[in-house]
Design goal:
By secondary structure, the protein is an alpha/beta fold. The protein has two domains: 3-150, 3-Layer(aba) Sandwich (Rossmann fold), CATH 3.40.50; 156-266, Alpha-Beta Plaits. Helices cover 31% and strands 21% of the residues. The strands form three sheets. The protein has a five-stranded parallel β-sheet, sandwiched between helices. Helix 1 (14-26) crosses helix 4 and helix 2 packs parallel to helix 3 (92-100). The longest helix is centred in the middle third of the chain and has 18 residues, at 133-150. Flavin mononucleotide binds next to helix 1 and strand 4. Flavin mononucleotide is lined by residues 9-16, 52-56, 81-84, 113-115, 117.
């Protein structure tokens, strides 16, 4: 998923730290508002917009840029750092603008950041050492959730039921995407058979079957949902169906038999 994070972090670089934690998880490019050309936007699948909170809203550079951008139907997430303990309505201006321009807001994140302005000068600054490692960990977790929400196969299983099978796996189709699997969904229509999923999976879930051109998740019952294949896939052809039931499946499988261990050692 081609991701662009646009960040204005003009005061102390607090929001840039958050942006970098998110960018690492999303393999995203980071740009300042000034570096963004209007023609950049169509080539990205997901856009992050973040800044320090300056006078109760996102920084004016972000707001001005978004006013100019064409973001209709674009998947977007927003974030900020601020001094005040509670976020309140600080994101309202940017959220309204995104709604007005028909962007699809997938989520928002905010944490506190060090501030040594106004009343805080007297105590040599407030929120010392923030954002800290805990804040950056939360930023990374937020980015993980956004990646799942933005994935082209998110919700696919719920929308389409399996009408047939392919190499023993359930097959769902919307006419464009042909998706096999129940736990590990693989869009065979765009899989380029690069083999990265096979290499990265610790559980040997993927196998190239005799008649198939692409690796298939035939061992999906052993998938522990580590997400490595999903992250590695260059065409976003793989989606792990992260349900509570699938978590329980692993728990029972692990406690009741040694199949998981065997699959792990097989590699
Ligand atoms: C000009 C200016 C205005 C600010 N206004 C607010 C504000 O309205 N509310 C708030 O909670 N923090 C406010 N802050 C604190 C910043 O939001 C906070 O320090 C933030 O982490 C800065 O992020 P940055 O270093 O990425 O620019 C303000 C800081 C500056 C410099």
């Amino acid at each position: 998923m081609k991701t662009l994070i646009i960040v204005s972090s003009t005061y102390l670089g607090n929001t840039m730290k958050v942006a970098k934690a998110m960018a690492h998880e999303l393999k995203a490019t980071i740009k300042s508002p000034k570096e963004v050309a209007l023609s950049d936007i169509p080539s990205y699948d997901l856009i992050g917009l973040g800044s320090g909170i300056n006078f109760a809203s996102h920084d004016k550079e972000i707001i001005t840029l978004v006013e100019e951008l064409s973001i209709a139907n674009k998947k977007i997430f927003i974030f900020s750092t601020r001094c005040r303990p509670i976020l309140g309505s600080y994101h309202k201006k940017l959220k309204s603008l995104i709604a007005q321009k028909e962007g699809i807001l997938l989520g928002e994140f905010s944490c506190v950041g060090f501030d040594r302005t106004g009343p805080w000068v007297g105590m040599n600054g407030y929120n010392k050492n923030r954002p800290n490692s805990k804040d950056l960990f939360k930023s990374m977790l937020f980015a993980m959730q956004i990646r799942k929400k933005a994935h082209p196969l998110s919700g696919f299983k719920k929308t389409y039921s399996s009408a047939s099978t392919y190499e023993g796996l359930p097959l769902r189709s919307d006419g464009v995407k042909n998706v096999v699997g129940n736990i590990v969904l693989l869009n065979t229509s765009i899989c380029i058979a690069c083999g990265r999923c096979t290499k990265s999976c610790p559980m040997s879930v993927f196998t190239i079957k005799h008649n198939a051109n692409t690796p298939l998740p035939v061992g999906e019952a052993n998938c522990i949902m580590c997400g490595k294949c999903e992250k590695e896939c260059p065409t976003d052809a793989i989606f792990i169906n992260e349900t509570f039931g699938n978590g329980l499946r692993i728990l029972f499988r692990e406690s009741s038999c040694d199949k998981l261990q065997k699959a792990y050692w097989r590699k």
